[in-house]
Design a protein that fits this description.
Oligomer: single chain
InterPro entries: Bact_Sigma-Reg (IPR052016), GAF-like_dom_sf (IPR029016), PPM-type-like_dom_sf (IPR036457), PPM-type_phosphatase-like_dom (IPR001932)
Pfam families: SpoIIE
CATH class of the largest domain: Alpha Beta
Keywords: Hydrolase
CATH topology of the largest domain: Phosphatase 2c, domain 1
Number of domains: 2
Low-confidence stretches: 1-22, 265-271
Shape: elongated
CATH architecture of the largest domain: 4-Layer Sandwich
Number of helices: 11
Mean pLDDT: 82
GO molecular function: phosphatase activity
Radius of gyration: 41 Å
Helix content: 40-55%
Distance between the termini: 151 Å
Structural class: alpha+beta
Protein name: Protein serine/threonine phosphatase
Number of strands: 14
CATH superfamily of the largest domain: PPM-type phosphatase domain
């Protein structure tokens, strides 16, 4: 066996694998550089989007956020410039913000956009078509400046467009850049929606404060408590469906001079023999408009009572005075006006299409309606109103009410109606309740009928007048 010298044994040449390793190291190094570059780019984009998210959470002013939008858009898409165009509620188009790295390019783009927007706004009030807007901008800019855009959608309604501009011929509109542009546009839409919700909330808060003021004024205009009328016990309550209601009731002395004299001499709120007006009304509708008309009705009626006419004449004069205002507001008023004379126990009245009050006759335990002919206040300027009169006796009770009682609806959809009210009123009187007891009983019957979970769909007002015997007079 012949030994082979060591120096001649076959051994791979050292340079061969070295050359192979050197050749393979170049793409590996390039790959590492690419990964590092992508990582840096990803961090840059994340930081920019985080800044945009922070601005969205922190800025209270929408304009501050909109100033930032084109800058962020240009940076995350590596573009030379960006523009934000919004559509206003009045149909006008507005260039909100423009960012461009090159000043000359920015001036050129701004001139083109301003010219196109002015033309659109001056042409007609019809909404601009996004495709038409993009086409006009591309046509005016020419082929030198490349253009990309995406819509800004708020509740699936396009409220503007976000544009990206580039003069780099090698600039590629990749899917990633498209998504980033859409992401910025979506955050801009969120900022716009949040601002509108804030404006709406502030408006609602102002309306709530105004409603509180209106409700407070209305409560002050309604009688704070029932007056003390000789020989009569009164109870009244008004529950509004909203903060401000259209129901109205009032107690008006027909002779203020005599009332003041007796109050000064006797130190009480009533006068022997001074007649009092007891009024109840209902303005068609609810809320602030009805409350305003109710206030107007109260003032005009109180002035009319001083003329000392009959109830029918008072309603006739009131109708003529209020007709023009009610016609313009397309609203009407039902009103029952009565005057009670403590000396004679005579109740005189006139009705302007209001729910007739119910009269419980203690002697016969029967119920009658108090009604006269008459149309709604504000329906016809020449309406005439009849006069009625009844003689009350000790133990008699009269209830004045609005249609919120008879129109109350149960969970099954049934109305309380007048028959149920008459039956409940009769039961309350037969039980020997006083005026306050009758008031509480009738409201309790309504609540049981409607159900505790249901709210009043209409204002409910009730006035109870009960005639006392002579020995119980104050």
């Amino acid at each position: 066996m012949t030994a082979v010298p060591i120096s001649r044994q076959p051994y791979p040449a050292k340079n061969t694998p070295a050359r192979g390793l050197k050749t393979d190291a170049t793409p590996v190094f390039a790959l590492k550089e690419l990964v590092a570059s992508l990582y840096r780019e990803q961090n840059k984009i994340q930081n920019l989007l985080s800044s945009l998210g922070f601005a969205l959470r922190s800025f209270n002013n929408l304009n501050q956020f909109l100033e930032l939008t084109p800058l962020m858009t240009a940076r995350v898409t590596d573009a030379d410039g960006s523009a934000l165009i919004l559509y206003k509620p009045n149909g006008q188009v507005s260039l909100e913000q423009l960012h461009c790295q090159d000043h000359q390019m920015g001036q050129e783009i701004q001139q083109v956009l301003t010219k196109i927007i002015n033309q659109i706004n001056n042409q007609s009030a019809t909404p601009v078509l996004p495709a038409s807007l993009d086409e006009q901008i591309r046509h005016q800019l020419g082929t030198k400046i490349r253009l990309y855009s995406t819509p800004i959608l708020v509740k699936n309604i396009e409220r503007g467009r976000l544009y990206v501009f580039s003069i780099n011929p090698e600039y590629i509109w990749t899917q990633t850049r498209r998504k980033l542009l859409q992401l910025v546009a979506d955050q801009t839409a969120v900022a716009i929606a949040n601002n509108e919700l804030t404006v709406e909330l502030r408006s609602k808060e102002r309306q709530d404060r105004e409603l509180e003021i209106a409700s407070d004024i209305q409560l002050r205009l309604l009688p704070r408590k029932c007056p003390t009328i000789q020989g009569v016990e009164l109870a009244a309550r008004c529950e509004t469906a909203n903060r401000v209601g259209g129901d109205y009731y009032d107690f008006i002395p027909t002779n203020y001079d005599q009332l003041r004299q007796d109050q000064g001499s006797k130190g009480q709120e009533s006068a022997n023999g001074v007649p009092w007006s007891i009024v109840i009304g209902d303005v068609m509708g609810k809320g602030v408009p009805a409350g305003l008309i109710m206030t107007m009705t109260r003032g005009m009626l109180r002035a009319e009572v001083l003329n000392r006419h009959s109830p029918g004449q008072i309603l006739q004069h009131l109708n003529r005075v209020m007709y023009a205002d009610l016609e313009n507001s397309h609203r009407f008023v039902t009103l029952f006006y009565s005057e009670y004379d403590p000396k004679t126990r005579c109740l005189s009245f006139s009705n302007a299409a209001h729910n007739p009050p119910l009269w419980w006759k203690a002697s016969t335990q029967e119920i009658a309606k108090l009604d006269t002919e008459g149309m709604l206040i504000g329906l016809d300027a020449d309406s005439e109103y009849g006069d009625g009169q009844v003689q009350l006796a000790p133990g008699d009770t009269v209830i004045y009410y609005t249609d919120g009682f008879t129109d109350a609806v149960s969970q099954k959809g049934d109305r309380f109606d007048e028959e149920n009210l008459i039956q409940a009123f009769q039961t309350a009187c037969q039980q020997g309740n006083n005026s306050e007891g009758i008031l509480d009983y009738l409201f309790e019957q309504i609540k049981q009928f409607v159900g505790s979970e249901n709210n009043n769909s209409d204002d409910m007002t009730l006035v109870v007048m009960q005639v006392k015997s002579s020995e119980n007079w104050v």
